[in-house]
Design a protein that fits this description.
This protein has about 325 residues and is of the alpha/beta class. The chain is about 40% helix and about 20% strand. The protein contains 12 helices and 9 strands. It has a 9-stranded mixed β-sheet, with helices on both faces. Bound molecules: alpha-D-ribofuranose (RIB) and calcium ion. Alpha-D-ribofuranose (RIB) binds next to helix 1, helix 6 and helix 11. The site of calcium ion (CA) has 10 residues, from helix 1.
């Protein structure tokens, strides 16, 4: 099997961190060409630094990491320190990164990588879509060079940052609109799916038992990150949003989905960033997304535990 060539665009962030560990644990399946970072959970100065810290912890100081857009296209940046902490990785303490930040802008890396490819690049987007939207505007031809976007974002029922919107699409709804209307094959992993993947104490017990720096970081991040979600939702643990995207790339049979037209609200402040999914095709809008509906949560956590164990091997 040829490894899938992917670029991960992220805003680490606790769940982004776990997603990076999951992606880096299976190099025979996922060939991570680079990691691009964007402002989201915390400002760009921290998301780019956190990405480097996490790659060093995972033994991948060789990976090229790029800084992208420091704010959304039109709206002011909002961040989520209340969820992820002031550092974006509260709950653990990592040494200052030694690996370099690439001098090339993330947007230019995305354009160059996609244009140079034979159309086999998959983009895993784990944060606001600002970098990808700017790349599409700057070089529209990349739309014909991207195999698929698998996006963590959107909400069909309840939102998390507002009653109706999910954080990534709320932060930059205009970027989301550019991506959703670009004609690029897209799979949407919304809150309605990620809230099915709760990191319960039982599921975390298996990871905690690995007893390695990576497993300690995973559990330390989730212990902190979970408090907010458990208070808000009454869950028995935090939902693992971003790792669901990587799990979809590794084990798509853990998921069910359907084709539908997806649009995003960019006008009303009441529903800004809301994704509207025409499940029953009541409009004549052609489907533009593969909308994920369910996840095999136990299988997902077995995969994540396997990943942490693999990264913990000497
Ligand atoms: O709404 C959850 C998403 O927003 C996740 O990607 C989380 O990391 C934040 O970016
Ligand atoms: Ca994220």
């Amino acid at each position: 099997m040829v490894a899938k060539a992917i670029v991960i665009d992220c805003d680490p962030g606790a769940d982004d961190a776990i997603a990076l560990f999951l992606a880096l644990a299976f190099p025979e399946q996922l060939n991570v060409l680079g990691i691009t970072t964007v402002a989201g959970n915390v400002p760009l100065s921290l998301t780019q630094k956190n990405a480097r810290c996490l790659c060093e912890l995972a033994g991948r100081a060789d990976l090229p990491i790029y800084a992208g857009c420091p704010r959304p296209l039109l709206r002011p940046l909002i961040t989520a320190e209340d969820v992820h902490g002031k550092t974006g990785l509260d709950g653990i303490s990592l040494p200052e990164p030694q690996m370099p930040l690439q001098s090339q802008h993330a947007v230019d890396f995305l354009i160059e990588t996609c244009m140079r490819s034979t159309g086999n690049i998959t983009l895993a987007t784990l944060g606001p879509l600002t970098n990808l939207a700017v790349a599409i505007v700057k070089q529209p031809a990349i739309c014909q060079h991207i195999h698929e976007i698998v996006m963590m974002g959107g909400a069909l029922t309840q939102g998390n940052i507002t009653p109706s919107a999910e954080f990534n699409l709320y932060v930059d709804p205009h970027a989301a609109q550019i991506v959703l209307t670009a004609g690029i094959p897209l799979t949407m992993v919304s809150l309605d799916v990620t809230h099915q993947a709760i990191a319960t104490p039982e599921r975390l017990r298996a990871i905690r038992a690995i007893n390695s720096p990576i497993s300690a970081a995973t559990v330390g991040l989730l212990d902190h990150y979970g408090v907010y979600d458990m208070q808000r939702y009454g869950f028995s643990g935090p939902p693992l949003h971003d790792p669901c995207v990587i799990a979809y790339l590794l084990q798509p049979d853990f998921f069910t989905s359907y084709r539908a037209s997806v649009a995003v609200e960019t006008t009303s402040e009441l529903t800004m960033g809301r994704t509207v999914v025409d499940r029953w095709h009541v409009t004549n809008q052609p489907p533009n997304a593969n909308v994920v509906e369910s996840i095999e949560a136990d299988g997902f956590y077995q995969l994540l535990t396997q990943a942490i164990a693999k990264l913990s091997e000497p």
